Amino acid sequence: MNRNLAPGKKIYFASDFHLGAPSHAESLNREKRIVAWLDDIKQDAEIIFLVGDLFDFWFEYKRVVPKGYVRFMGKLAELADSGIEVIVFLGNRDMWMTNYFEKELGVTTIRRPKTYIFNNKKFYIGHGDGLGKGDYGYKFLKVIFEGKLPRFLFNRVMHPNLGMLLGYIWTKFSWRKKREAEQYMGDEKEYLVGYSKEIEANEHHDYYIFGHRHTKVDIQISPNARYINLGDWIWYYSYAVFDGEDIVLTSLKTEA
Predict the structure, then answer these.
(1) Helical axes 70-81 vs 24-41, angle rounded to 10°
(2) Can you tell me the distance from the alpha carbon of 206 to that of 224, in angstroms, rounded to the nearest whole number?
């Protein structure tokens, strides 16, 4: 169903904040910049899409949530309370999010890619992990980790202090290999581009919007369809804005 934006209102998209990484000091500085950005865009935002991996690791115990990030979560609650719609797509780093954001912050959480229509423009939005051809090892692990048994065991067997410690130890291994921004590998090697083209061959969308790859990319995949990867807030501090007619992919670092 088509939804028209109110006059002067916009939709914002961002992803891959990875709060908690690679150190507390760096994460805190990033969190403050994210909060400042959210505070700035609330003037004309009607909807804010946060497209996954907001945290470097996240697990919700039944009565415990991870320590930290209070500035960020407080700002999301403020935005939602003010009437701005905030929609979070779960990424591979925060796949164990359950209902805390919805119940306490008023934020909608979505686990799978979803199609929206705004101002007669069709959007296909998702984090991007596990989509397209290849990466079968990760896809196998994702099925396991998203199952009820691993979540039950992590929740009931481990004390939260130990569980969160193990989670952050696991994520730190991945950062040892990430010393610089990811590079776009070309249309033929980028699996999300291929995935978008496959969908476009069967059903037209004006925009395919993903995170996950940590690449800031805006390309045509057909005469009337664009693939946009939102980059991240580790290297790019990037986001996209839809003004009712078109999308612009930009970055805080280039806005002086």
Answers:
(1) 20
(2) 6
* Residue pLDDT, tens place only, 3-57: 999 999 999 999 999 999 888 999 999 999 999 999 999 999 999 999 999 999 8
- Sheet containing strand 207-210, edge to edge, reads 2-3, 114-118, 121-125, 207-210, 225-230, 216-222
Instruction: Determine the Cα–Cα distance for residues 153 and 92; give it in Å rounded to an integer.
Output: 19
Q: pTM of this prediction?
A: 0.91
Dist. CA 84–CA 19, nearest whole Å: 22
Amino acid making up residue 230: L
pLDDT tens by residue, 135-194: 666 665 666 567 677 677 767 777 887 777 777 777 776 666 666 778 888 788 899 999
Six-digit token string for 15: 């992803």
Kindly report, residue by residue over 155-170, the tens digit of the pLDDT.
777 788 777 777 777 7
| DSSP strand pairing (10-14 vs 238-242) | antiparallel
Q: How would you classify residue 31: left for phi > 0, otherwise alpha for psi between -120 and 50, otherwise beta?
A: alpha
Residue 142 identity (one-letter amino acid) = K
Phi and psi (nearest 5°) for 220? Answer: -80, 130
